[in-house]
Queue: 2 jobs
Job 1
Amino acid sequence: MKKGRAELVCTGSELLGGKLNLYAPLFAERLAPLGFALGREQSCGDSLEEIADAMKGALKRSGLVLVCGGLGPTFDDLTRQAAAAALRRRLIYSKDCARILAFNYGLKKLPPNFKNQCLLLEGAKPLENSNGTAFGQVIRRGGKMLVLLPGPRQEWEPMFPNFLDEEIRAAFRRPPVSVVKLRAAGLWETQAEKLLRPAMRRFPGLGFTILAGPGTVEFHISGADGGAVAGAAAVCRRLLGKALYGEGETTLAAAAGEKLKAAGKTLACAESCTGGLAAELITDIPGSSDWFLGGAVTYSNTAKSGLLGVRAATLRKHGAVSAQTAREMAAGARRAFGSDYAFSTTGIAGPGGATPGKPVGLVWFGLAAPRGVKVFSRQFRGGRRQVRACAANCVLDELRKILK
Amino acid sequence: MKKGRAELVCTGSELLGGKLNLYAPLFAERLAPLGFALGREQSCGDSLEEIADAMKGALKRSGLVLVCGGLGPTFDDLTRQAAAAALRRRLIYSKDCARILAFNYGLKKLPPNFKNQCLLLEGAKPLENSNGTAFGQVIRRGGKMLVLLPGPRQEWEPMFPNFLDEEIRAAFRRPPVSVVKLRAAGLWETQAEKLLRPAMRRFPGLGFTILAGPGTVEFHISGADGGAVAGAAAVCRRLLGKALYGEGETTLAAAAGEKLKAAGKTLACAESCTGGLAAELITDIPGSSDWFLGGAVTYSNTAKSGLLGVRAATLRKHGAVSAQTAREMAAGARRAFGSDYAFSTTGIAGPGGATPGKPVGLVWFGLAAPRGVKVFSRQFRGGRRQVRACAANCVLDELRKILK
């Protein structure tokens, strides 16, 4: 068994049907500062044998096993029973848990379905749930730790700062894994890999992960040696240069927004092919109303003329997907909203709409600033969603680059 | 071993770091018509022992095991070697594969990194890759089947219709699992569960899954008995009544769009708190330009007045988040874009912005139709993203309900 290896078991038949399991990265992030890396993730249906089998396998391979879900009050919540079977331990009714639940819910007598939630594995330590009725449980055996957690994120997440960080640290005393996340835009995953290879060679003891988004690339540098991680991050920052737009959990829109806010400037936009996506990325940021005045989604030519003042002659002569239209859209948005800066997008997101000389994926952009309007174009690959996402990120990237 | 049980093994260290694994639902959907349900999903890092161990476990429990990823040309592509170790079979260089690759890429001699991709497990059948260089492999042993697939979706997905559907059907001859997906809006997951309980009781042999989205609920009914699935679906449709907005892969925006298109009518919108999200959901639909004219994202009061003609007195007297402003925004959008219908959203997405009597999550909506404007409000729970997503879905749901 490798030291510092953890495993995650997610339960719920819906995870094998239609629901996306979004938990592995969230748990990985929680575990790194505690000195653990995820070695495997398993998703199981709501079956006692299945969950018990997954748990047993995980406990054989790993020092720390987290099981998420199946602690509710209903018939298909079987994680407690599965853990009892896997560890061959009894389930014991906890009067303390019953008292806490009754107090929290202002009940004199617990209804029957709460009683199932007061069953603890023999020797388990209960973890109070600040957002629900299911207790978590920590069970230690032979230098290993099994943790049972409720399924909903808002229920298990607070258990880390409240109890688990301390429990895990005290039990294992592992050095934290340092993680630096660098975010870049305007380069492909393969370009990024090539660019960063020198850093990866120079720090062979560290973990490097490259994650590609639409027009963006994320690098994670991780390792127990915090100095080496910081050193590698410094090298990577230099190698990335202007492509680096931020670190941690930031976004392109947030990077542009911070610059605007610092300069006391405002932004507006005019979108055709991105159809509201760029505005959505901007307004997703709390407080964006401080610097974002609004946007126009002008899907029709009439809207381009009526709201933004794009001339009918421009649309007739050059078409909606053209440098000239992009220019007039950006200038028009800046005028209509009275903002300092404005950008525009007009292109062919597909699958239909291509014309000779204007293939699917072609997008024209305009960037209007106090000193004038700049236009440029890109040819993106992929389906409708990919083209739109790349276009929105591309114009936000150019915007944050022209801002001081 | 349960018949018709399949397992999925996904490889790639990034799946345990920061990348979401989106594959389980996609594979579940591919496998249902072949008579298989996913019994477990495992995500492993790029380690030969780890992948081999996950494969061995899966093959013990299941008749069909799919392994996705790790077939590329580089040092960390170890799935072929792991399968050889797990099955104790040799890897053999395939001249046929080499010939196909050389032909596809117009090469006389294969470069060394292509050679690794010509290694087949003894007795394996190669699956040609129409979008990449990695062959898939099908290995049969003792009534079971192991399938190795390349990681990128655009590479493994076409292998199903091209080869795998036929291979799996011929090997197992299982009756397909029928699946019906019903989509509803305007009710909570718990309400939906209560509403549908009679159908679940009446068809105990079927699988029912309830998936909650922001303001939407999805029901999957599945089973080998197609007649029973159709019968249960009919009962559920009746129980859901007007809450049912579509079936299969449709969305609320698409449901509204189909009605608009059929009636030859057009739509526009004015968004404040949803900040472009509603327009984005609409323009995500290919061909939406036939009936969607555009939208205004009016984050500032000036934009509300300038673009939509909301009166300064209305904003002053009632505030931006009010029935009156929602009404003038919707009417203004209908006028500005010249559309038959228009909707508006104005609310407090949070975390800031609450005022006495106007808590975070309060959203006012307007729906402008040829016969007049209707306004209504909702109080949503959750964080900024959840409030925005619920608000966008809520107004699209009301829109599709008022359309004939």
Job 2
Amino acid sequence: MSFDFTPFLRADLPPAAGRFGGYAEFNFVGGHSDAGSVPGDALVAALAKVVHRDGKLLANYGLSHGALGYLPLREYIATMLEDRTGMPTDPGEILITTGSLQGMDLVNEALLLPGDTVILEDVNYGGQLSRLRKLGVNYVGVEVDKGGMRMDALADVLAAQKAAGVTPKFIYTIPTVQNPSATVMGLPRRQQMLDLAREYGIPIFEDDCYADLLWEGERPQTIRSLDDQGQVIYCGSFSKTVAPGLRTGYLVADWAVLSRLMPLKTDGGCGALEQMALAEYCPDHYDAHVNALRQTLKAKAETMAAALEEYFGTTAEFEMPQGGIFIWVTLPAEVDTDRLTKAAGAAGVAINPGSEWAADASYGRRRLRICFAHPEKQQIRDGVARLAEVCHAEFGVPLRSANVER
Amino acid sequence: MSFDFTPFLRADLPPAAGRFGGYAEFNFVGGHSDAGSVPGDALVAALAKVVHRDGKLLANYGLSHGALGYLPLREYIATMLEDRTGMPTDPGEILITTGSLQGMDLVNEALLLPGDTVILEDVNYGGQLSRLRKLGVNYVGVEVDKGGMRMDALADVLAAQKAAGVTPKFIYTIPTVQNPSATVMGLPRRQQMLDLAREYGIPIFEDDCYADLLWEGERPQTIRSLDDQGQVIYCGSFSKTVAPGLRTGYLVADWAVLSRLMPLKTDGGCGALEQMALAEYCPDHYDAHVNALRQTLKAKAETMAAALEEYFGTTAEFEMPQGGIFIWVTLPAEVDTDRLTKAAGAAGVAINPGSEWAADASYGRRRLRICFAHPEKQQIRDGVARLAEVCHAEFGVPLRSANVER
């Protein structure tokens, strides 16, 4: 007889996790990276140097550098953010987190109560939408066009919220390689967003974890770099650029805010080996590494786009991303991507249904997010072919497959 | 002008963190380990092998082994727990956590609501007491003697709770090298605790993170090993045995419970490098490593005990610990260790005041926890000497110092 824990568990817990059954044969979900691009041996070589020099720090919580995390890594991040985004950053205002996800959880936990409102891009990271729902927070989507969140739409939403007597807790934005639209917000809109946040007196939470994965050119200045009043909380990550398995991200905020978030981080610090390895690896290698990774990802994006065109034809509408790891696809109105996700999953193809990636689930119903960073090119082609077969079987579209009229 | 975040932060947040100012000259707090015992180079050498073989897994969240964590590490933990504690464990019922602290947070979050009650040893880990207070949970202390939690006292507490109509959410226990009493609960009491938990239908949360640090003999069977009904949730850690900086712990529970805890772990997994390094290092090296570490810690404990005797004489009462990293000291009734902690801190000596380490703060008022794992032996002697000076200056005791009558 098993002890029944049910009466002891909180009644409002999420549903139980399922057993992990391995990844789908064609894995087009999640933030997985290109396996061949992970600089594993170089990270270990860097780590060996640090540990040989500084290994005794492992005997201390926080590596003797306090709760913010390993100081040399924070110093590198500060330099990198200034060089790449024009954002002067004090290493004392950087908190190392377990991926940017922990940063997101800390910000949400510190600011949000049930019934609160958050403003965000109307298509959005499913993990943030589900977090906000779990917290009982209302989110209001703002239309995204090819240039990211529309500032006229943001102004309308803010005015409407104010008219309704609501002060949103923050504007959550992914300005560079927005998830899932892959759009990039230009500098004028960034300035406009900050101006609107000023006008309405509302913080901005800027999530920048894809920003180093633009195919070409420099990443735009961060919104936080335009702000001299500490109104923007910023998060970034090495997950998408070096390796997701490292689980190393960071929050940047003025000390007045960061010092309030820190007591919510009760895990005794993040993994030391990742912090040490990155601190030693990045100064000499990060720039060249991300330059190479961008080209690899761009080539995979082109493979994915070509496969979508080949197997879906005009049935699949999408904008070619300027960077990142995913394409946001719109299918004809008769397609329900929740149903497609189930059927495709049964056929070994994992995709993200748009309903989970949109503030208005019904808007996402005919849309899907498809990630291309992890599968090899042949897998991308084969997987999209199979997805098209499944879609045709379920919904009658695409009409043709593999350039052959059905 | 700075943006004022105050109206946007939850009103019930903990106080702001302070800036880290470095450790005290004599650091007798925290779970820091012996720096010379950290097997840094060996961990890196192990990691190099795994990454060379399996480095591509870093491209995946969860290293392709799902949310429970890196499978080879879970397999090692399962083997180790069976060998060392007689606890057959399924690697599918082990969740890798960021230290045992994250495991504790997951259990607390899943089971506890404000107003709930937890039963625990009456002197206890300050971090768990502060977590429970933050959650608005009542805790009821059960007397600890030289053999750990007294089972007659536990029976009385459980009966009294039942009479009051209260069903405690769980019994939290650190049965082996209890924090801070350093006591070890023998097998008969473990069986009695399980029997009482059965009788009252209450779960047990067994925290075993010091269990491999007994100076001599085998660690006792875990309470969970006596339980065939899944009533015990168990946590362990490599922090105290390999290195705190690694932040690698684990939860063990039947799937019915573990699957409810897992969705609360929203960080996308724990650091991969630590998991890989430990999985490769431990099978060949863990046993010899902890055997050596135990002797090192025992020698430091003896140094600490000798220093306490030398500088405090009969003023300091304590039991010599059978393992672990701390000694629980009782001072005369006129001493207030909150005040002593402040004065000692100003003099460069960090200690844990007993009020933070006792369910009844007033019981802890004349007591303190003093950790000996991190400082070198001369630092232990010098730090205790300075502590005795401060104590004498503040409270007039000890009367003699350095064997010289004042």
